[in-house]
């Protein structure tokens, strides 16, 4: 698994191969995988393996109900994996998730793991076994040991180039949609429809057919009565920012969601973390992207020019580049430019 997560696979290939390897050590009958925004711990995508289509209901359970072994709780816990049977003290019916989803599907064993590496959660998985078989405490601990490896793999997949053939058009302006308490679309703008296509939706939006990240961010806002946000890469490689707020007036439970291009400043920490940069390396990278020469960077960070060069060597190695020019190309052109309108020639990086 450690070798796999260092191969820089895209997410779909990573999940397929990780699932195959995981099944050799921890045999399972079904699984659901998620990517997670490490800043907000909101699920940004969902992929089920040998499970019924419960996408919207799964998000509702995760954010609206106080169930056992929520991924956000496991991400913050000392141990990042958990058994539902253990959390419920052997009484699985205490779990709403078990009563409504697992029991009707003939599942008894549930093992959940949040993929935490360097203090940030990048994804999660739940694997299931058909009744009467459950997972053991030893298997739970083994899943915890895999959490960091899978976190590195999911983190690296976030910055892999998109598959050939995806055209990057100019991003639409901000879009707005309004959801009722049952996740039905009450109203939607033309720009929001364009963003939903970028998030993978085909056809008209309706309950059970909305992108998972949209359902998740709306449920988080509905649960807290406040705001919720997430960032996710779309089909073409553009970044999409979602901001949900509980709507006042009218029926309770309504949520307004804004979809738009996130600012470069909001994406920079995510991309830097995805490359595994340290806090100091992130500071230095942001200054490089702004065009500062070595001497100015050294003065701003109160370090020597030699130390700046040593940090740059480490940054280049992690990002897979060999120069400042390539760094700007990888971190700016690949991730930022699709989300903004060109306003002129981009300045050359200063050596």
Describe this structure in words.
By secondary structure, this protein is an alpha+beta fold. The chain is 40% helix and 20% strand. It has three domains: 4-157, 2-Layer Sandwich (Beta-Lactamase); 175-262, PAS domain (Beta-Lactamase); 275-339, Winged helix-like DNA-binding domain superfamily/Winged helix DNA-binding domain (Arc Repressor Mutant, subunit A). The strands form two sheets. It has a five-stranded antiparallel β-sheet with strand order 2-1-5-4-3. Strands 7-6-10-9-8 form a five-stranded antiparallel β-sheet, covered by helices on one side. The two termini are 39 Å apart. It contains 13 helices and ten strands.
Number of strands: 10
Q: What is the domain total for the residues?
A: 3
CATH topology of the largest domain: Beta-Lactamase
Distance between the amino and carboxyl termini: 39 Å
Low-confidence stretches: 338-351
The spatial strand order of the largest sheet comes to 2-1-5-4-3
Task: Compute the number of helices.
Answer: 13
The geometry reads as globular
Roughly what percent helix? 25-40%
Measured on Cα atoms, how large is the radius of gyration?
A: 21 Å
Looking at CATH, the homologous superfamily of the largest domain is GAF domain
Q: Name the average pLDDT.
A: 86
Structural class: alpha+beta
CATH architecture of the largest domain: 2-Layer Sandwich
CATH C-level class of the largest domain is Alpha Beta
* Proportion of residues in extended strands: 15-25%
H/E topology pattern: HEEHHEHHEEHEEHHEEEHHHHH
The major pleated sheet works out as: 5 strands, antiparallel
């Amino acid at each position: 698994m450690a070798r796999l997560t260092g191969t820089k696979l895209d997410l779909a290939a990573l999940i397929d191969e990780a699932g195959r390897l995981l099944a050799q050590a921890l045999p399972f009958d079904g699984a659901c995988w998620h990517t997670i925004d490490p800043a907000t711990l909101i699920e940004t995508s969902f992929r089920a393996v040998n499970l019924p289509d419960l996408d919207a209901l799964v998000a509702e359970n995760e954010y609206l109900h106080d169930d056992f072994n929520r991924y956000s709780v496991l991400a913050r816990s000392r141990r990042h994996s958990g058994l539902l049977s253990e959390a419920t003290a052997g009484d699985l019916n205490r779990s709403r998730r078990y009563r409504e989803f697992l029991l009707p599907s003939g599942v008894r064993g549930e093992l959940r793991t949040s993929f935490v590496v360097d203090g940030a959660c990048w994804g999660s998985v739940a694997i299931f076994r058909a009744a009467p078989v459950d997972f053991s405490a030893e298997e739970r601990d083994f899943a915890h040991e895999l959490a960091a490896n899978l976190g590195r793999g999911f983190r690296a997949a976030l910055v892999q180039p998109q598959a050939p053939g995806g055209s990057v058009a100019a991003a639409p302006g901000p879009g707005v949609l309004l959801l009722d308490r049952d996740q039905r679309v009450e109203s939607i703008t033309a720009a929001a429809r364009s963003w939903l296509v970028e998030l993978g939706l085909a056809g008209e939006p309706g309950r059970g057919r909305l992108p998972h990240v949209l359902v998740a961010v709306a449920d988080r806002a509905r649960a807290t009565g406040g705001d919720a946000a997430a960032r996710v890469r779309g089909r073409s490689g553009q970044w999409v920012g979602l901001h949900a707020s509980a709507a006042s007036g009218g029926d309770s439970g309504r949520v307004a969601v804004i979809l738009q291009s996130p600012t470069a400043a909001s994406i920079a920490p995510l991309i830097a973390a995805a490359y595994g940069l340290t806090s100091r390396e992130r500071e230095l990278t942001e200054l490089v992207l702004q065009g500062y020469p070595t001497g100015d960077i050294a003065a701003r960070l109160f370090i020597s020019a030699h130390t700046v060069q040593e940090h740059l060597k480490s940054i280049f190695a992690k990002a897979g580049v060999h120069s400042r020019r390539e760094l700007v190309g990888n971190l700016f052109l690949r991730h930022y430019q699709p989300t903004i309108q060109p306003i002129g020639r981009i300045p050359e990086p200063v050596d």
